[in-house]
Specification:
The complex is a heterodimer.
Chain A lengths: L8 E5 L6 E7 L8 H10 L3 E4 L15 E4 L6 E5 L4 E4 L5 H8 L4 E2 L11 H7 L6 H4 L6 E7 L5 E4 L5 H7 L8 E8 L1 E2 L4 E9 L2 H10 L6 E6 L11 E8 L8 H4 L2 H4 L4 E2 L3 E2 L3 H5 L5 H14 L3 E6 H5 L17 E9 H17 L6 E7 L12 E9 L5 H17 L3 E2 L9 H8 L1 H14 L8 H8 L2
Parallel strand pairs in A: 2-4, 3-4
Antiparallel strand pairs in A: 1-2, 5-6, 6-10, 7-11, 8-9, 8-10, 12-14, 12-17, 13-14, 13-19, 15-16, 18-20, 18-21, 19-20
Helix pairs in contact in A: 12-13
Chain B lengths: L19 E5 L4 H12 L3 E6 L2 H15 L4 E5 L8 H12 L4 E4 L14 H29 L3 E5 L12 H21 L5 E7 L19 H13 L4 E4 L3 H9 L3 H4 L5
Parallel strand pairs in B: 1-2, 1-4, 2-3, 4-5, 5-6, 6-7
Helix pairs in contact in B: 1-6, 4-5
The chains are: A alpha+beta, B alpha/beta.
Chain lengths: 469, 263
């Protein structure tokens, strides 16, 4: 009998609150505590999934019936050099810890997610991108070196030049090849804690995508919001936000704006509503009519404007309203994100938006970004755009949503598109086979066999996409 | 020869979360009927029983009808106590969760009106009660930790009075009923639901050759009542329902009369 006990079981949820599955949940305090779990899992015939902040919308950080190791407590910053901007961290260090550690000396993480609660281990495991993907690439492109513990017990050091194949597949490898033990990254030099922001409306999806493309050479960051409820000539209308770093000397008081306190997000909305309560006020609008109303108002009130905003305010929109996901109700939400080449994006997404209207299943939020390809094995990126759509789940719409997701998958694959494994929850093995290709999957499987011959690392995502069919 | 790898269950996704059940004592009678009906409702099922061939046939029938792997067979003897924790652990890993646990294993070994037979009595208690305890302990620990789940125990109207015909069967079902009640009282506060099912006469192997039976119902009817009780979170049902009133009378027959009865 192993040391695993039924009393250690917990229902573990995904970020979208759309799936709750039982796992034996452990939170090791140090790297030394991880290794014994490999033996325990092997003895019990169970698998392990590594979990950071659990901010994936799907089953990437779940492991139903298996072990979950929550690595958030292994979160020391090991080395920081404010001269060179090089930082070494343990995998549980969050984006929040990271920017708060480096900002005052004039640095900022090169790639950040829409929430600062994510851990570096998770960010590397899924190879996250930010609103600057077209310019900065994914987070993996800023990693100089990492060390990892493989399930075989071997400890490896990987960089683009050393164990390069492992470097390019562990980053984006969904945590299925090994456990990051330290991560060394290059930070970005900043001359201010502020960003120059420009905001403007796009009357339809075509203009929105054209703007994302034409601004890419002058913008440091660019992101679009899509009103997915708009039909007809306004199909895919929305707003764009472009952000640029301030050149040296442009900020009259950089020592002030580079302070962590300056970056802190407001505690109240309109100076009145505590933001922890805001999701209760959002919930009544989380239906087709309410969303249409709010989106229309947001679009019509949108004006061309330029202003300055702190880094944290611009980047971490998902942290503005704590627990915003709860406003989607008890059944939660799913996100469907697709990546399409420049040439096919407009036609395909227009079809998808129309389909969602026909089915009366509009997305309540749509976000566009501009991307560039990268050299990682399980890459999601393309020379084109991404569109992320949030759908509310209700007890009555599951079957209809599932069949629409399947139609979406077909449209995206026909258009030469790709998917990102931390987002979509319904991607099937045959879909992954088309966009990744047989050869890539075989390569990953071979690496998995080499690094994890006893198949100790597993996740809902890996079982669903790579072990099925 | 290694066993061929079993096909895996459907993965849970937000749009197809799926319900999952473990059914102990699934190869025939109420168990098999319950398995078929739960499969019709889309449940993934871990089916346990001693009789491997019958179990495999049932799984094949269910999976062919559903055109996917809904049921998997786990041959098991409920008195193999040592194996239960590990088996539960591996079923949990295979299915990715358990929403409903059903204990339906039961035997009846009548000893004749003038005979006494400890071996038969012990065997009856081992299957009907000790097997249940051996399963319900880890299952209760699991559901208590998860703060959710449904436990279903198939007891019997026979547990409500001690009769001349089958003392150990009566005692085993009385013990099971009381144990389930205690579990309910312990676990309700953790969001776990416990259902006690008390069938009357059901047309199963248990009833073969029994005399003096009446209101005999097919196992499918009992299974329908149980499925409905699971859905509506009942804590205690008789199947068919009229047994509730019959048992109200029987429970209140004074001992001086009951002693003279021969059923």
């Amino acid at each position: 009998m192993s040391n695993i006990s039924f009393e250690d079981l917990q229902q573990v949820e995904n970020f979208g609150h759309s799936l709750r599955l039982p796992s034996y949940y452990y939170r090791p305090e140090s790297l030394d505590d991880i290794k014994p779990f490999l033996d325990i899992a092997q003895d019990a015939g169970l698998t392990i999934n590594l979990r950071g902040a659990g901010r994936s919308y799907n089953d990437a950080a779940l492991n139903a019936g298996g072990i979950i190791l929550d690595l958030q407590a292994i979160n020391r910053i090991l080395k920081w050099d404010p001269e060179t901007g090089l930082i070494s961290c343990e995998p549980g260090v969050t984006i929040k810890q990271l920017w708060q550690h480096v900002l005052s000396t004039g640095w900022w993480p090169p790639v950040v997610s829409g929430t600062m609660t994510t851990t570096l281990g998770g960010c590397l495991g899924m190879n996250i991108h930010g609103k600057n993907n077209f310019k900065a690439g994914t987070i993996g492109e800023h990693v100089l070196e990492f060390t990892a513990l493989l399930p075989t017990g071997a400890e490896v050091t990987c960089s683009p030049h050393k164990n390069g194949d492992l470097f390019r597949s562990m980053i984006g490898g969904m945590g299925m090849l090994g456990i990051f033990t330290s991560i060394t990254m290059q930070m970005n030099r900043m001359h201010s804690g502020l960003l120059d922001i420009q905001a403007w409306n796009a009357p339809d999806l075509g203009v929105q995508l054209d703007d994302l493309d034409s601004r890419k050479d002058q913008a440091d960051y660019i992101v679009g919001w899509v009103d997915c409820t708009a039909r007809g000539r306004g199909l895919g209308r929305g707003q764009l936000h472009q952000a640029n770093y301030l050149p040296e000397g442009a900020d009259p008081d950089p020592t002030q704006t580079l302070k962590v306190d300056f970056q802190t997000l407001p505690a109240k909305f309109f100076g009145l509503v505590p933001k922890s309560l805001l999701h209760y006020f959002m919930a009544p609008f989380m239906n087709n009519t309410g969303t249409r109303l709010v989106n229309t108002a947001k679009f019509l009130l949108g004006r061309d404007k330029s202003f300055r905003q702190s880094h944290a305010s611009f980047h971490f929109l998902l942290d503005y309203v704590p627990d915003w996901e709860l406003s989607y109700g008890r059944q939660g939400l799913i996100q469907y994100q697709s990546f399409l080449p420049k040439e096919t994006a407009l036609k395909t997404w227009s079809e998808m938006l129309k389909l969602s209207h026909q089915r009366n299943l509009p997305a309540y939020l749509g976000v566009t970004k501009r991307h560039r390809p990268d050299g990682f094995l399980l890459s999601h990126a393309v020379n084109g755009y991404s569109l992320a759509l949030d759908f509310k789940i209700t007890s009555g719409n599951r079957r209809h949503l599932a069949s629409m997701m399947q139609e979406f998958d077909n449209l995206v694959l026909q258009a030469g598109g790709r998917f990102y494994f931390a987002k979509n929850s319904e991607t099937k093995p045959e879909t992954a086979l088309v966009f990744l290709g047989q050869e890539t999957i075989a390569k990953f499987r071979a690496l998995k066999k080499r690094c994890d011959p006893d198949h100790l690392l597993d996740s809902g995502l890996y079982r669903r996409v790579f072990e099925g069919a | 020869m290694p066993e061929p790898k079993k096909p895996s269950f459907q993965h849970s996704t937000p749009l197809q979360p799926g319900r999952k059940a473990i059914l102990v004592g699934a190869s025939s009678g109420i168990g098999a009927a319950l398995a078929r009906q739960l499969a019709d409702q889309g449940y993934s099922l871990a089916l346990l029983a001693r009789r491997k061939d019958m179990l495999n046939t049932l799984c094949d029938e269910i999976n062919q009808k559903a055109d996917q792997t809904l049921a998997r067979a786990y041959p098991h003897d409920v008195n193999d106590y040592e194996s239960i924790s590990t088996l539960l652990q591996s079923i949990l890993a295979d299915m990715g969760g358990v929403d409903v646990f059903i204990y339906n294993a039961g035997i009846s070994l009548p000893v004749g009106l003038k005979k006494f037979d400890f071996d038969k009595d012990r065997r009856t208690l081992e299957v009907n009660f000790l097997g249940a305890l051996a399963w319900l302990n880890p299952v209760a620990a699991m559901f208590q930790s998860l703060k959710s789940g449904q436990i279903v125990g198939i007891s019997s109207v026979a547990g409500e009075r001690g009769r001349v015909g089958n003392p150990s069967y009566n005692a085993s079902k009385a013990a099971l009923t009381t144990y389930l009640e205690a579990l309910r009282n312990r676990l309700t506060r953790y969001g776990v639901h416990v259902l006690t099912v008390k069938p009357g006469f059901v047309e199963t192997d248990l009833l073969a050759g029994a005399k003096g039976t009446f209101w005999v119902i097919p196992p499918e009817q009992a299974a329908r009542d149980i499925c409905k009780a699971i859905r509506t979170h009942k804590q205690d049902i008789y199947t068919p329902a009229r047994w509730r009133w019959v048992m109200l009378v029987i429970r209140n027959i004074p001992s001086f009369i009951f002693r003279k009865l021969v059923f």
